[in-house]
Inverse folding.
């Protein structure tokens, strides 16, 4: 069985489509929604749609996903954003991939629900990155064998780049795969500043992370609107990550 773990906070408008996409998969699965005190009825909605729900946990995606994993009963774990929809074959593809003993996990190619040619191009580049490096972002639906997740100690409790950190550590332990067809993620986060400016900001943050900047400090600077280039390098930050 595959345990699908979804961290949420005020996702009542997007979660139904995501849960419906999961339900469209015939493979054996369970859905765990880990809700950080939503005020819009996200938890109650998830429960009515058949998900197991953990309510009022700490609002941090890494913490929420770890909390869900502790309650999961599946042999494989799939971490899914509340605004990211699966193809009807996705869970079967994960099962097939994990039949190969050397495969420890992976993720999916991703596209956005947008007509932007620029965003389509960035998704293709992200797929190339994932196939070459084994780096996955959270909206690529990261999956992993349960025993590997436990051996890695789960997600590090970071406010930014917990996804890249985890996928990098997972890649060191065995083969990872990038699956198709892609998951479909909401393009809502590009609305405020536009695809180009948002992507450039993401690239800058990722570059600073790769150079060893502290992810939690980067997250704080990003939220405040300060220049993240001034965040110091830390001795432990070379393996850290989170993406909103």
């Amino acid at each position: 069985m595959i345990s699908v773990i979804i961290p949420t906070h005020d996702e009542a408008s997007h979660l139904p489509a995501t849960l419906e996409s999961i339900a469209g998969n015939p493979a054996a699965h369970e859905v765990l929604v880990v809700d950080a005190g939503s005020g819009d009825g996200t938890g109650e909605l998830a429960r009515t749609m058949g998900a197991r729900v953990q309510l009022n946990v700490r609002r941090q995606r890494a913490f929420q996903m770890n909390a869900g994993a502790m309650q999961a009963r599946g042999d494989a774990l799939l971490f899914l954003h509340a605004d990211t929809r699966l193809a009807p074959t996705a869970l079967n593809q994960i099962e097939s991939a994990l039949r190969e003993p050397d495969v420890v996990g992976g993720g999916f190619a991703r596209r956005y629900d947008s007509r932007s040619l620029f965003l389509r191009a960035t998704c293709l580049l992200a797929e190339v990155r994932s196939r070459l490096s084994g780096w996955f972002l959270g909206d690529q639906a990261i999956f992993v064998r349960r025993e590997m997740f436990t051996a890695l100690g789960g997600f590090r409790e970071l406010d930014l780049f917990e996804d890249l950190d985890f996928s990098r550590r997972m890649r060191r332990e065995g083969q990872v795969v990038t699956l198709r067809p892609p998951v479909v993620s909401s393009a809502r986060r590009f609305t405020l500043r536009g695809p180009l400016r948002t992507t450039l900001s993401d690239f800058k943050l990722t570059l600073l992370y790769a150079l060893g900047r502290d992810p939690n400090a980067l997250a704080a600077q990003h939220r405040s609107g300060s220049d993240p280039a001034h965040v110091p390098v830390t001795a432990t930050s070379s393996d850290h990550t989170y993406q909103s």
Summary: Residues 227-244 have pLDDT under 50 and may be disordered. The chain has nine helices and eight strands. The first strand starts at residue 2 and ends at 8.
